[in-house]
Design a protein that fits this description.
Number of domains of chain B: 2
Number of strands of chain A: 2
Radius of gyration of chain A: 20 Å
Main location (chain A): membrane
Strand order of the largest sheet of chain B: 8-7-9-10-11-15-16
Radius of gyration of chain B: 21 Å
Number of strands of chain B: 16
Family (chain A): Belongs to the binding-protein-dependent transport system permease family. LivHM subfamily.
Helix content of chain B: 25-40%
CATH superfamily of the largest domain in chain B: Response regulator
Order of helices and strands of chain B: HEHEHEHEHEEHEHEHEHEHHEHHHEEEEE
Order of helices and strands of chain A: HHHHEEHHHHHHH
Strand order of the largest sheet of chain A: 1-2
Distance between the termini of chain A: 54 Å
Low-confidence stretches of chain A: none
Number of helices of chain B: 14
Shape of chain B: elongated
Oligomer: heterodimer
Helix content of chain A: over 70%
Keywords (chain A): Amino-acid transport, Cell membrane, Membrane, Transmembrane, Transmembrane helix, Transport
Structural class of chain A: mainly alpha
Subcellular location (chain A): Cell membrane
Shape of chain A: globular
CATH topology of the largest domain in chain B: Rossmann fold
Strand content of chain A: under 5%
Strand content of chain B: 15-25%
InterPro entries (chain A): ABC_transp_permease, ABC_UrtB_bac, BCAA_transport_permease
CATH class of the largest domain in chain B: Alpha Beta
Largest interface: A-B, 51 and 46 residues
Number of helices of chain A: 11
Mean pLDDT of chain A: 87
Largest sheet of chain A: 2 strands, antiparallel
Distance between the termini of chain B: 41 Å
CATH architecture of the largest domain in chain B: 3-Layer(aba) Sandwich
Amino acid sequence: MFADYSMGELTAIFAMQGFAGLILFSIFVLMALGLAIIFGQMGVINMAHGEFLILGAYVTYITSHVFQDVMPGLFSIYFFVAMILAFIASGALGMFVEWALIRHLYKRPLDTLLATWGLSLILQQAYRSIFGAREVGVTIPDWMMGSVYLTDMIEVPINGLFVMGLTVIIFAAVGALMFRSTWGRSMRAVVQNRTMAEGVGIDSEKIDRLTFGLGCGIAGVAGSAFTMIGSTGPTAGQQYIVDTFLVVVFGGAGSLLGLVASAFSISQAQSILEFFLSGSMAKVLTLLAVVGILMLRPQGLFTLKLRK
Amino acid sequence: MTDFTKPRQPAGPSRRAVLAGGAALTASLFTPKGLRAQDFPTAAVNTTGLAVTDDTVTVGILHSVTGTMAISETGSVQAEKLAIEQINAQGGVLGRKIQFIQEDGASDWPTFAEKARKLLVNDKVASVMGCWTSASRKAVLPVFEQYNGMLYYPTQYEGLEQSPNVIYTGQEATQQIIAGLDWVSRDKGAETFYLIGSDYIWPRTSHKIARKHIENFLGKKVVGEEYYPLGHTQFNSVINKIKLKKPDVIYAIIVGGSNVAFFKQLKAAGIEMTEEKPIVLSISTSEDEILGVGGENANGMFFSAKYFQTLDNPINQKFVSDFKAMWGPESVVGEVTHNAYIGPWLWKLAVEKAGSFDIDKVRAASPGLELDTPAGMVRIHENHHLWSTTRVGRARDDGQFDVVFETADLVEPDPFPDGYQ
């Protein structure tokens, strides 16, 4: 396969392939982070995660139109505004859903699965009714398209670098929030022992609502960022949901470190295999490996020790 | 049948000469014939108990308007309703107004079969315009054959099928593929091809035909062929592989949301389709799909198909303006939407030639029928597919195409191609 190429060409291709793997890794972390927070901290399997993601994408779509029509001069920076709005919209919807639906089902985890699945169908049909069944095209500012040349032969897509940067920032922010803030401490206390946490005066209902809102809000930001690389349509969220669950379950619920390890191993395995085999075979082999490892280690790569 | 003032197609003269024998059968859209229902008594035109009365005839529309396929099938439903409205405005079929019963296949193949049975058995519709994916067509096929219905199927598809109960208004694979490959190899001097597709029957069968044609008939080289699961959104690895292999042509048959991801990432990776090489040639990315991809991301891509919204002929201009008047100025018309539009017209033509709504008579009357459509003249083949023109268009940044090539003659449909299996 490589006989006809010079050393320089091969180095360049492998460097670009390395970046492709890192970009995939960032995307996995970004899309799974919200789900991991909700699943890990609250034990709720949010089947509507993909739809919260797409809400962020639609918010980006609307924002791009508003900027185009009202203030075209600022179009090149609309994306940052859109991401903030996406966070607020998805987060607010998340908190509302927690209040209206999820909080009644905390003691019935299987029912949350069904309820959020139903919610995902409702949201899909709502998007279809509001925005139409067709995919919408989100116009991305010019500076975010194209690629940068690191050397003469190594070029890296700008949107990929953007997603990588965004992932680092959001991950650091979530980490700081969970391990450095009062709210994070309360949240971890509720996870470790809900009764005891309530006993020392923590409002666990409020913590639940904020946690769910945060998870959904991050999904919204992810959806906003994904308008650069994927499609925006009523059912586009379904494209992400399988990979998202895979990453979270493989990593071990509730562990941010596990999330990173799992996203890294799956993304690297997939992008290396895709390079040497075809796309469908790469997916099959990756899934087989994940299944095999989960059979040996059902709790995932990393787990929190909890008092049950 | 005597309207000889019909507009000429771009490739008109040469083709017209070849087909002069059949010209008398050629019908033109938008020319009322003024047939009166009382000249065709219901008892005579409907001997098999279809839903035909003295002044109406009922047909079925069977597409997904909910679920994942709604994105693609909505345009087809709109086009079929437009055609029915226009036919009614001209006085209907055999003097009878068309009424339609619309059923939702809900992107679920067993549902398609169930709804097809309902339309044929309970509603006794005289014909059905419907289905989109091959899977849905395969699901309803036994129903149509069992109850002897007639389905007008609009999507370009992989071929390898020929049912007495289906008229295929889209192109089968060889019609769409071969002319495009010949063009890119002859006019663009392409030597190497990279085939990429979504992983299901249509792309796989089409690429099989493409590979045979490239290697055995053109004597050129395929340097890569691969498939990605439906809904796949990460194409960076394959784009790196393409950069390594440097093919002249990237031949893409990607569908759905993957399409959007592929073109966005291709552009982001610095592969400029507006330049001379590489050429991206697709058979799955019509005006409809570009809506989601974004014109700026598809700019410069080539698409090989029968129909383009920009086709410069009066029939098409009227079709596009009527479509926009009915469904909004923002709407676009793609390949399948156009094919769906000609379904009711072909049915009307067959019924009026047969002088009857009976399925068997309509079937017998269908082969040889010619119709001037927005995509130029088409003729129904004995195998129930259409002779049609194949064109290649190049995408502009507004999401429309400039036609850069069209076949001089109608391309014969060949659903079971020798040498391509």
